[in-house]
Every structure is written in structure tokens, then in C-alpha cells.
Automatic annotation (TrEMBL):
Gene3D superfamilies: 1.20.58.1460, Winged helix-like DNA-binding domain superfamily/Winged helix DNA-binding domain. Residues 38-83 form the Transcriptional repressor PaaX-like N-terminal domain. It comes from the Bacteria. Coiled coil: none annotated. The lineage of its organism: Bacteria, Pseudomonadati, Pseudomonadota, Betaproteobacteria, Burkholderiales. This is Transcriptional regulator, PaaX family protein. One of its GO terms (biological process) is DNA-templated transcription. Residues 192-280 form the Transcriptional repressor PaaX-like C-terminal domain.
Amino acid sequence: MSTTSYLDACLQQARPRLNTMLILMFSEAQLFGQKSQWLGSAIALMEPLGFQERAIRTALFRLAAHQAVRVERHGRRSLCRLAPATAAAVAAARQRLDIPPARSFGEDWTILVNSGGISAARYGAVRKRLLTLDYCQLAPNLLARPTAYRARAGVERDMPASEEHGLALFDVGGAQLAAAMRQPLFGRSDCDLEAADELYRQFQQRFQPLSKLLAQHGAISDEQAFLIRLLVSHGYQHCRRSDPLLPQEFLPATWQAMAAYQTYTALYCGCASQARRHIQTVTAAVAAAGQPTAAAPRLRRALLTSDSLVAA
């Protein structure tokens, strides 16, 4: 099976949303020093994913209306970039993705405890926010995250002020936390492990064959490397959002999170140099042309349409 066939299959299975992929595309370009893109460059980079030019233009201006993207007019041309708040949110999310999902009671933890000082509605909103920051719910009123997160640049600033949210914050050793979880003090929290594990298995089936092609010289073109980085990033983020990120002591031995993480890092890092070259080639070609004309898509697949705004 060729690289093109694998990519086609990935697109048909994942059905990525245009707004999400646009934000990922801009963040990828920023990582390689391209902080802004002419509209023509954005179109040329996105069309191989199967999106129509008209849909891309519409999605970009909708994102601009929601202040997720900034679009500046330069005569007849439009220069696009992520809004600072969007760029910061995407960068922070990327740094959390780079942290392996494996956790255990052999490390130190930060815990946040709801002692009943806030309303149920407010706690529900706070808990939702904390779960997006990779806290796990060990009990109905107890959220936890490894203390090692604080050492990660960009992640420490995500640590909410416990006083602001009405939660009690403690730094505890893993052994202490494990002992507390064996007691009925906090109660139990049920998680849907089967659904999350199935997502990881689907991710492996979809992307593991592509990771094996990395060792074959010339098997992946520059354009395909760029597409792979977008798709594997999109797919792995989807898995992580469903992962309860529990300590491994609470997980089955067949849990696929670390295998999926290794596939993600192998593809995302292994395609970096080629993806950078593709972005630079496309942006240079559009800039040299002096007008935002789009390159014809090289991969044939069903055209996709725009969608509603998805938060990064």
C-alpha cells in the first residue's frame, strides 16, 4: 500500500474539520518561522487535504470574525496569522501533548480538592477546564496531575490559582495519594476506559503503517510529510481528549496510550524537516508570484466543506 493510499484512508476515516486543520496549519508554519501566510499560501497548503478553495476562504474569514485568526489587507492581497490568544492556546496544548501519557503513583502529584466551598455548577465548570489541562479525576471531588508538569515551560502558567476556584491545593507523594485512594474518603469516579482505549487502537491502525515508511528513503514526499504532521497531530489530540489520564495502576495492562504516543512522536518528529521544506517552498512560490494563487492539489480525494468554529 502506497503513502498516498494510506493518507487517503486516514482522511476518509478521520474526516478532519476545516477550521481545526487551518489552525493546526498556521501553528505548524509558526513552528518553522512562518508567522503569517498569504491567503494563497494558506489555500495551497490546505487544498491537498481535499478542501475547496472557496470553503478555505470562507472558513478563514469566519475564524477572523471569531478573532481566532487575524486577516490584514495589503492592496488586493490578504495576510493571515493566528491571533495571539489562539497561538498561545495552541502552543500550550502542544506542550501538553508532548508529555507522555504514562503516569504512576511512583511520582509526586498535585491534587485539587473540592471541600464543598463552591456550588455544584461552578465546580462543574472548573472541573471541565482542569480536565483540558491534563488533570485526571480520581474521585468526584478530587483532581490530580503529576507535579512534573510544573517543570514544563508554558504549562506552569496553566496551573489555576486554587483560591480563585475555591479548591484546596496540595502537593503529595505518590505513595500518599495511592493510600488515600484505597480509603472511602473521596469515593470513586467511574471512567469509560473502553471508549478511550478503542480510539487509541484506531489511531494505531491508522498511523502505525505510515511510521514504518519513515525508514524507506523517498517513500514520503515533502507534501506528504506536511500532511502527515497535520493528520497525526489532529488524530492524537482527539485520543488525548478522551483519555482520563489515570495512573497506570488504575489501567489495564493492554492500555494503548503509550504505544499511540510513540507512533505520534515518531511521525510528528520524523516528518519535521520535510514538512518545513514544503511550507517554505509553497510560501516562497506564492510570494514570488505576487498574487495569492493556489497550487493544484496533488492528492485526489472527495472534496470537503467548511464547518463551524472549533476551539483550539
